[in-house]
Automatic annotation (TrEMBL):
It comes from the Bacteria. Residues 1-28 are annotated as: Disordered. Residues 1-15 have a biased composition (Polar residues). This is Helix-turn-helix transcriptional regulator. Residues 30-79 form the Helix-turn-helix domain. Pfam families: HTH_17.
Amino acid sequence: MASPRRNQPAPTQQPRKQRAATADPADDEWLTVPEIIKNLKLKRRTWQHWRSTGKTPPLHRLPSGRYRVHRDDYQAWLDGLRVDA
């Protein structure tokens, strides 16, 4: 007969919801590229084209190879795109 604890997380592990609630507030300062693409309702290829032509906000590359954009840089970039009609 299988142990009733077999499918339960180890006692030292917190459930995902609790880990997210205790996440570092500094994480809110960084945006991922997929978050930006979703926010701007862009296609990934459009973002890639902008990146190749230098039209994206400053990107920071992590050791994992993924990119992040600081929220302040993103906001400044958006403000720079504003056009008074």
